[in-house]
Give the backbone structure.
Amino acid sequence: VKLDLRLHEALLFVPCPRTLAAKMFALRTRIAAHSTKNAISGRLILARGFAKHVDNARAVILDRESTLEVVNPTTGRIEKEIPVDTHASLQSKFQKSKAAQGTWAKVPISEKINMLQRFGTYLDEEKDALATTLTKEMGKPISQARNEINAVKQRISFFVDHTEEVMKSEVARKTDAFEEIVSYEPLGVVGNISAWNYPYFVGANVFVPALLTGNTVLYKPSEYTPMTGDHIARLLHKSGVPEEVFTVVHGRGQIGEAVAGLPLGGVFFTGSHPTGVKVASKAAPNMARVQLELGGKDPAYVCADADVEMAAKSLADGAFYNTGIRMGPILVRTSFSYPYRRLWLGLKRAY
């Protein structure tokens, strides 16, 4: 989206169409407040503590933030300001997490299971309030926010049911002279750099099994959903998980890179391909276990012999569910305009 800033131009990229109007509104408000006194020598301050230098169509991002502003994508209103971690505070949190890992690993699995089950219960008890916060942060409809929280409890049950069996030692080879045993040990401190589109569900896919298997977790929520990250930590701590065992780290990309560059046992990231490349390169010198779920909006392909009505309903759901961040372009393979027109009309009826 190109905004004309009189003498300068800034290119802004937003994560999904639904947040566009709100982010433009918020940006214009900040520009209006700062442009008069800060438009000097080709430099324009876009927001308090966050500078974007525009010079000969080249932009350099300087991260000088002390807080994250949580902007409601529907109203453009700032819901809350969250303190941002510094490199010093990140190092302190990592050292505390590292020191706590050995003790946490020795906690019986039965106790860990009880804690995670209590966490699921607390999610259910506070579901409406948690869903409201999630909708305010990232814009998904309230019913879909509730559905995401419901899914976390099911995922907790899955990991609880299978962790003990998966973690059992295996005898790989046994003779009269020796036996070879394969055993499973915690990775140590795990970095969980989570996504903004499903912060509860995507995060739980990592931190639930990580905690159950004796790891401590540095959890970096997306800068778009920091309040949800704090709620996750609050309820885990309320459930009995020590604060140094599950620790939230707040910040934008620079803090995320710093997390990935720590001497961790594992780094787990969900997000874009370019950021995934950065995460992998930062983790590589430490030989950390790395798991990346990368991508974007996947296109849908409609064959010429498809059921047009069913395709239209399915594509509409895929294109617009969860604020439209699951699926991208729709490609229709046909030599005739009639099936395409039926598909388009079906999409309009569905949404």
